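Section 5.1 Outputs to date
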Amino acid sequence: MPVIPIPRRVRSFHGPHTTCMHSACGPARTTQLVRTRYNNFDLYLRSRCMYGFLRFLLYFGCSLLTSLLWVALSVLFCLQYVSVRVFLRLQYKLSVILLLLGHRRLDFGALNDLCIYSMQVTMFLMGGLGWCFMVFVDM
């Protein structure tokens, strides 16, 4: 069985940042890296500023999206509230008219439950999105 020779000590580490280390410390072995008119600190500052700007755009976009969704959900909740009041009046008038005509009263129980549950889900979503929006604002 052949044995693969493993050196006792490796003199250089070839990892993901090898070129960065070589450009910071000078020439790597005998090959000279291409020099630019920027030194390494300028490149670091530029990448740091770009990273900060991209992070700001990400957080700002997310907070803007959550705030728009929160406004849309609050408008939906107001519409649901007004429509439930209108719908309950319509149910009452329809039931009275059907009783006067001698027909059987309609059962609106399942429809009323569905409206109430949808309003509760909308309120839960408003609370969650409000919390997310405040988290993005704090960042």
